[in-house]
TrEMBL record:
Residue intervals passing through the bilayer: none
Family designation: Belongs to the phD/YefM antitoxin family.
Name of the featured protein: Antitoxin
One Pfam family hit: PhdYeFM_antitox
Function description: Antitoxin component of a type II toxin-antitoxin (TA) system.
InterPro entries, alphabetized: Antitoxin_Phd/YefM, YefM-like_sf
SUPFAM superfamilies attached to this UniProt entry: YefM-like (SSF143120)
Species in which this protein is naturally found: Caulobacter segnis
Family annotation (NCBIfam families): phd_fam
Length: 78
């Protein structure tokens, strides 16, 4: 487990992200843990999430909509 102070985290976010690929990174504020940085894979494993953002955006459960097309002869009121 890696522990960084808020100052260390702010000064080198890239280092924290690299460390989070291997293990959770705890960020402390005045000596007390306030945040945890996890890789997305670890987060998904912990939450049981199996869908990706692409799966969620596809929205396969929505019914197809049948929208009437506008006719060229129709005019819009202004």
């Amino acid at each position: 487990m890696k522990v960084l102070t808020s100052r260390e985290f702010n000064q080198d976010v890239s280092q924290a992200k690299r460390a989070a690929r291997l293990e959770p990174v705890f960020v402390t504020d005045r000596g007390k843990p306030t945040h945890v940085l996890l890789s997305i894979e670890t987060y998904r494993r912990l939450t049981g999430q199996t869908e990706t953002i692409v799966d969620l955006l596809a929205m396969p459960a929505l019914p197809a909509l049948d929208l009437p097309s506008a006719r060229a002869s129709e005019t819009w009121e202004r």
